[in-house]
Structure prediction request, 1514 residues.
Amino acid sequence: MTDEHKMLQNSAERYLRENYDFAARQHSIDRGNAIDAEHWRAFSDMGWTAMTIPEAADGFGFGLADIAPVIELFGYYLVREPLLESALLAGELIAAASEAHQTRYLPGIIDGSVIATVAQQDATPLTRQGKASGQRLQGDLQFVPSGGIASHVLAPLRHDNQPHWVMLDLSLEGISRERYQSHDGRQGAHITIDLPFDDRCVLVSGIQAEVATQALYQRAMLIGAAEGVGIMQGALDLTVEYTRQREQFGQALASFQALQHRMADMLIQTELARSLVLAACHAWDNQADNASTLALAAKAKVDAAARTVTQEAIQMHGGIATTNEYKVGHYFKRMALLESWPQHRDALIAQLIQNRQASITP
Amino acid sequence: MTDEHKMLQNSAERYLRENYDFAARQHSIDRGNAIDAEHWRAFSDMGWTAMTIPEAADGFGFGLADIAPVIELFGYYLVREPLLESALLAGELIAAASEAHQTRYLPGIIDGSVIATVAQQDATPLTRQGKASGQRLQGDLQFVPSGGIASHVLAPLRHDNQPHWVMLDLSLEGISRERYQSHDGRQGAHITIDLPFDDRCVLVSGIQAEVATQALYQRAMLIGAAEGVGIMQGALDLTVEYTRQREQFGQALASFQALQHRMADMLIQTELARSLVLAACHAWDNQADNASTLALAAKAKVDAAARTVTQEAIQMHGGIATTNEYKVGHYFKRMALLESWPQHRDALIAQLIQNRQASITP
Amino acid sequence: MIDYEQFRQTVKDFLKTALTPELQRAGELTTSVFSEFNAALAWQKKLHTKGWIAPDWPTEFGGPGWDIQQRYIFQEECKLANAPSVVMMGIQMLGPMLMHYGTEEQKQHYLPRMLSGEHIWCQGYSEPGAGSDLASLKTSAVRDGDDYVVNGTKIWTSMAHHANQIFCLVRTDKSVKPQAGISFLLIELNTPGISITPIVGLDGQVEQCQVFFDAVRVPCKNLVGAENDGWSVAKFLLEFERGGHNFTIDIKKQLRKIFRQAELTPWGKTTRSVDPVFQHRLAEAEIDAMALEQAELRIKGAVEAGGNPGALSSLVKVVGTELGQRLNELSMDLVGPAASPQCPELLSPEYGGDLLVPEHAVTTMAEYINNRAATIYGGTAEIQRTIIAKKVLGL
Amino acid sequence: MIDYEQFRQTVKDFLKTALTPELQRAGELTTSVFSEFNAALAWQKKLHTKGWIAPDWPTEFGGPGWDIQQRYIFQEECKLANAPSVVMMGIQMLGPMLMHYGTEEQKQHYLPRMLSGEHIWCQGYSEPGAGSDLASLKTSAVRDGDDYVVNGTKIWTSMAHHANQIFCLVRTDKSVKPQAGISFLLIELNTPGISITPIVGLDGQVEQCQVFFDAVRVPCKNLVGAENDGWSVAKFLLEFERGGHNFTIDIKKQLRKIFRQAELTPWGKTTRSVDPVFQHRLAEAEIDAMALEQAELRIKGAVEAGGNPGALSSLVKVVGTELGQRLNELSMDLVGPAASPQCPELLSPEYGGDLLVPEHAVTTMAEYINNRAATIYGGTAEIQRTIIAKKVLGL
Prediction:
C-alpha cells in the first residue's frame, strides 16, 4: 500500500468518524431522505468517486486491493449512499466502453451528478421489440439496489441472441419506478422500461458484454465482501465496547468466559475473511488465474461469517440490540441484504466447485 | 414401560456397573480375546439374548421401545460382545423365517451358542454359480462387524433376479475369514465364501426378502441409535465428573463458564437424541406410518450429535483423553465406527428427503 | 376416553366459520409473537364467546376443561389455520399466578376481565440495566397509607401501548438481599404519573415500550402474595413462561412455509425444492424439529404425571428458539433480494395494493429480524444454558 | 532477487533422488505429527548432509540462509512429496531458544548435535495436574554443589522413548509467585534416576511418554538463562511453537487426499466426487483453507517486516487445527466401514502384505483419532481463544 492509498484511507476514516454520525443517519432516513446530499457532495469533493476510475478519465486508477480498507469503512460506518455501486461498479463497466460513453458518463460519476446503479444478476434482460424503424426498449428490473435514488441504471439487454449492456437515464419518459424503503436504510425500486430504442444507450455488446457481465458481478462480489468485512469489524467493536461497560450479576459482561470465547471467534472470523478478501482483490487487480475462484470464495466466506458475527453481536447485546435506535442491529440488517447480492452463497459455492472440477486435470 | 421392562433395565444396569469394568475390558482386549466368555454367558443367563425373540420361540417378545434403555446401557458401558447384532438384529430376521429355521437357530441365539452377525448394507450379494446339480455359493463379505467372533453370518444372496437372505455357519468348509482387530475393541472379518449350495441356508426369498432387508437395516439404525445415546450419556457423565474434580489455574474446570455452556449443549443434544430414538422405537414397534422416517431421522440425529458430543468430551478432558487407558476416547472410537453402520448419515438424509417428497401430495 | 380426532374436527369446524379471511390474513402477516392488535382483540372476543380463550385454565375459572392433548390440538389447528395470536400476558402468565397467589377478591375482579379482553395486560419485569438479572431491579414502591407510591421505569414491556394494565416487580425493601426485598404489584396503566414511550424495533414497528412511573399511587390491595415475597411469585411465572410454549407447532408451520417457498424459488433449471444442497440443510433442521417435538412430548408427559418441567423447560426453550432462527435463515436463503423492502403497509391486514414482492416472501425478512429476540427474552439462551449446567449437570 | 521457481525446482530435484520409496512410504503412512522414527532419523541425516535440516536457522549456526518464501516452498515440496517428518523438538524449538538464551558453550555443544541427529530432544513441560496451566508445575530442582538434584515427573513428552535428551521446566524456588521460581534445564536422558513409561495412545501406538526423575543430578552448567527465569524462556518457546507451523501446507495435502478419496468412494450410481451435498461441505472447508492460507501469509509478512506474530499465532493455531479436524471428518465420511481395522502393521513402512482396506483408507481412522490432540497440545483451543480475548480484544 502506497502513501497515496494510506492517505485516502486516513482521510476517509476521519471524515466518516467525525461526520457520519449514526443518529444523524437514522434521522435522515426517518425524514425520508434517500441519501444525505451533504455526504454525497463531500464524497465527491474528497475524490472518493474517482478512486477506481482510470487516470485517463481523470480518476485515480486505484486497484480494489489499494482501497479495500476504504470499502471496509463504508461497511463499518453503515454508509448508505450508493457510492460503491455507482463509482466502483457501474463506473468500471462504463470505463470498459467506448471513449464516447466514458466522456458522456464518467465526469458525472466523478462529480456526483450521475448516480448509477446496476440490475440484479438474475434480472431478466430487457428486449427490443417492434419494427427496425420504431423499435422499443422494454422490460422490468426488479429490486434494483438504490434504484430509488439513482439517476441511471445499468441493465442487460438481450437482442439478436446477443448480450448487451445499456445505460439508461431514469428521468427519460417511458421509465417509471416503484420506489420502496429498504431494510438497510436505502431506497430501492422496481423499474419499468418502455421507451423508443436509442442505440446510444448501448455500452457494450457481444463478447465484450459477456466479459463485462462476468467482470461486473465478480467485482460486485469483491466490493460486497469488503463492505461485509467492515460490517463484521463494526459489529465486533460495538460488542466488545458494550460488554465491557455493561454489568450483569455484578460483573462486566466481558468478564464472562463463554462470551469471551465467542467474541474471540468473531475476531477470528473477521480476520480470516479480511485476509481472503484482500487476497481476492489483489488477484482481481492482477488478473490472476485464480481471481474468479478467490472472488467467489471471498464473498461466500463473508456471507457465512458475517451472518454469524452480526447475529452473535445482537445476542451478546441483548434487548437493546433489537431496537431501531441502536446501531448494532443495522449491521445485521445490511448484511442480511448484502448476502444475496449479487447472488446467494449457495450459487457461489456451486460455481466454485465447477471451477475446481474444471481445473483438476485427470 | 411395564415393571417387567423396568426390572430388566435395573438388572442390566446393576450387572454392567458391577461387572463390566472398563480396565478389565481393556485387559481382555490386550490379551487378544475377541469377547469375554464370562460376560457372554452371563448375558444369556440373565435372558438378555431373549429380550426381543418372540414368546412363541421362548423369548420375551419385548419391543425395541421397551428395551431402548437397556440398549443405551450397552453404549454406556462400551459392551463389545455382539449381543445386539446377534439377538436383536439377526434374531429378528430369523424369527421372520420359517418355523424350521426358527427352531434351528433361535435356541442357540438364546443360549449363546450361536453368535450371529449381519453383512454390511452395501455388501455385494452372494451368488449361486454352476449347474443346477452342483451349484456353488460364492462371494466376499467385507468388514463384517464382529465377523471375527461370530459363529454365523446373515448375508444377502442374489439369484434368478430375486433377493434372498442366507444364514451361514462360519465353521463350514469353504468359508474362510481374515480377522482383524477393530478400533472399537471388537474383532471384525472379511469373509470369503465358496462352498456347495445347500438350500437349507435360505431363510427368506423374494418379496419376503425385500421386506426383511428393509426391516433389518432400519432395525440396525434404531439399535445403533440407541447405543449411540448411551455413548453420549457416558461421554457426558465422564466429562462432568472429570471437570468437577480437575483444577486449572486454581479453579475446577467445571467452574469455567465456557465449558459449562458446552456441557449444557452436550446434555441438550443427548436428550434430544434420546427423545427421538425412543419415539422411533415406539413407531417401529407399532408399525406406524412414519416408522421409516423416524428410524432414519433418529440414526442421522445420533450420528451427528454423538460425533460432536464425543469430540467435545475429549477436548474438555485434554491430554488424558488421548490415551488408550482412559475411557472417554473409546466412546469416540466406537461412535466413529457406529456412524457408518448400517449406512452413512448422508445416505440416511437422502432417503429421508425422498420419503418426505413422496409423502407430500401436490 | 376422549376422541381426539373428533375433537380436532370440532376445532376445525369452529375455525372454518369463526376465522374470517381478515383474521386469517392477520395471522399470515404475523412476523413476531404478536399479531396486529385489533385483529388479536377481535379474535380474543370470538374465542371468549366460544369459551375457548383460556385452554390452560381450570373450568372453575372459565377454562374449557381440556386435557394436554386437546390443548395441543387446539393450538396446532389455530396455528395451521393462521389464526392471529391473542395477547397472552394476562391469560397465560398472570392468570395462573393469580389463581395460585391472588386473594379471592383479586381473582374475582381480574380473571373474568382478562378473559373478556376488557383488561389487556403487560409485564413489567425488566429495567434498563437489569435485563436477565432481575434481582438488581430498582423501581421502588414505598408504603404511604393504603397506597404504595411507585417510582422508576420498566423496559421491554411488550404491548404496553395497547394495554391498560401492568403487573410489576417492584422493590419494597432496600435493606435486605436483592431477591428478598421485591414485591409483585398490579397497576392500572391510566393511573396518574405513568407515561409510556414506544420503542421502535429493528423492523421499524412498535411492540415494546418503556414505562415510566413518577410517584404513581397504587392501592395496597393490588399487592399479590406477601410483601417482599415477589421473587417467588416471579419465579413461578418465569417457569410458566419457559414451559408454556409448544415450539413444535410454530416450527411445523415454519417448515411448511419453507417447503412452499422452496417450490417457488427458481434454481438453475429447476427450483430449490429439488436442490440437494438446500434440501439436505432443510432435512437436518427437520430432524431437529422431530427431536424437539418428541422432547416436548416427554415434558408434557412429565407434567401430566404431576411433575414440574423444571430445567427441561430450559432445554426446550434453547432448542425451540434456536431452531426457529435456523428456519428463518433457510427462508432468507430462498427469498433473496425480495427481502429488501421494508414497507409496513404490506404487513397490514387491511392493505389491498400491489405486494412489491412475491406473496410468500412478504413476512420473511421481518420474521428473520424479529425472531432474533426469541433467544433474548424470557431468559436469554445463555441464562438457559447456565440453568442447565447448574441445575441438571450440577456444575 | 531470488528466483523462487528455480528454487522450487532445485528442491524437487533433490527430493526426487534423496527421497527413497521407503521414506516416501513412511511419509504416506504418517498419521500424526510424527513419522515412524527410523525413517524420520534416516531422513534427518540426508537433510543434514545436504545442509537443509534447519531451514529457519541463521547460516552462522548451520541454516541454509533461505528467506521465508523459500522455507515455505521447501516445506511444501517435502510435504507434497510425502517426505517423513523429522523429530523437530530440538531444531524447531530448543535451537532458536539456545541461540537467544544459551551460553557460548551450550551453543557449541548442542546445536551441531541437534542438526546431525546425534541428539534427539524431547520437551518436558507438562506435568500430571499441570497441562495448559504450566505455572503450577511441581518438578523440583535443588542446588547441591555444582549440580541440581531433580525430582518429579513430566508427562506428554512426545518421543521420549526415542530421545536421548530432554529440556525441562523445573521449580527452583517455591517461596515466590508460581511463575517466578521456574528454571530451564537441559538433561541427558541416560542420567541415573530417570525412567520412562510409554503412554499408549488412542490409536494403539506410542508417541507420548511419562518421564520420572528420582534424585537426578544435573550439572549446573545445563541451566539455560538465569536461575528462576525459566518462565520467560518458556514463553519465548511457546510463541515459537504456535507461530512456527504452516498449517496450510498440511491442509492442502489433506484436501488433495480427500479429492482422491471422493473419486474412489461409490455413491449411488456415481461417486462422492460428484455428490453435490458432499462437495458443498468440502467446498466450505476449501474456502476456509484459502482464508487460512491468506491469514498465514499476512502473518509471515508481518514477521518478515520484523514484527512478532503475537496473538495472531493463536488465531492461526485455532483455525489451522480445527480445520484439519474438519477435514479428518470429511475423510471419515468417505471411508465408511474401512475405518474399522486397527492393525498397526498396516501402518508400518516395511509391511508388504494385504492391505485389508483400500489403500486410500489405510491412515484415515488413525489420523482422525490422533488429530484430536491438535487442539489440545501447544496450548488448547480454549487457551488460544482466551489469549485472543485478552490480548487482542482487551476483554
Q: What stands out?
A: The radius of gyration of chain B is 21 Å. DSSP finds eleven helices and ten strands in chain B. The first strand of chain B starts at residue 116 and ends at 118.
